[in-house]
């Protein structure tokens, strides 16, 4: 199988699920209905979002997928004859294909949702046992992206062992994957790619690869069954945690978990810390900024989850940040930013409230190095990037290049030639973004 070939000649993670036409190569950019509307969806809302992606300039920044989440079909069951899932005629009078046509006419792509079980999380028909039929429907309708959830799993298909997902264990998890007090933990050396969870997801992958349309495959198993080990060969992104909520504590908690997974992220395969909450709940402007900066730096899929027809201009500005999007989509470097210093904590500390605060990564498209500094504390604090500590700069610095050209990534202000270090005063839960260019 071509997708199992080691990708030694390509810049991507080993065993990544390579797709034609660069689909899934860089992390996905788009919008999804769930965080904005939950089950209250219809064609109007989806098409409004699509039109706004164009009108607000988000399409020209690269946002392309418009994704329908749970609750799009007739809940009572499949068509008794064809066994196909039936789009809800009240919500989608022209079917999913009608929506797809309009979205394609805007130069955008359409995503849909199902689950590797008999029902979705909201109780609608899902794809277990019907993978090929559903993949064929999606392809015929013009679907370009499938988010595949983990609800409705029959009792006889649950895993033999329990994998320790960090956020379900309330602090009893350690980043090396060990759990305390887990009575049904897998024996050492257990290969989670052979688990029933992995198999359920691989069945849909095979079905998608068998249809005559390229459909980006986004796994949503909430980090279970050690998906970081087999997600890369199975899909183009994989959720590594439970659901996000529009609260800083939850955003920090997921960022902390994902910070330990950055070696898994590269072209065609990305750990997914869940969709964006920018614009939702009572997040402060600072928190919205830090959320977006961290998600972009981690090369998470950036899937907007707020109603776009009423979006606050401040939130739109955050989602439109060019340096972060340029870094995120860099055509020459697949790896994300890595934490280079934890700051508040000693390096490599697993702390749900205080994730790593100092991140950096190379980006030719950006003309240098991205640095993100976060203040995870509750009060205003100073955070300083010392060039001698930044992995991308330290060699030059040691060789005598003490100054670098710096631009503030939020304001776009040219900070000129900055020697040795740059400090920012950051409010609670805020993030600074620096673009560091040539030495000077
Ligand atoms: C969850 C999933 C959410 C959303 C929801 C729909 O399992 O993580 O992102 O899709 O189901 O019911």
From TrEMBL:
GO terms for cellular component: extracellular region. It comes from Aspergillus ellipticus CBS 707.79. Residues 355-435 form the Alpha galactosidase C-terminal domain. This is Alpha-galactosidase. InterPro entries: Aldolase_TIM, GH, Glyco_hydro_27, Glyco_hydro_27/36_CS, Glyco_hydro_b, Melibiase_C. Its main location: secreted. It catalyses: Hydrolysis of terminal, non-reducing alpha-D-galactose residues in alpha-D-galactosides, including galactose oligosaccharides, galactomannans and galactolipids. Gene3D superfamilies: Aldolase class I, Golgi alpha-mannosidase II. It is an enzyme of class 3 (hydrolase).
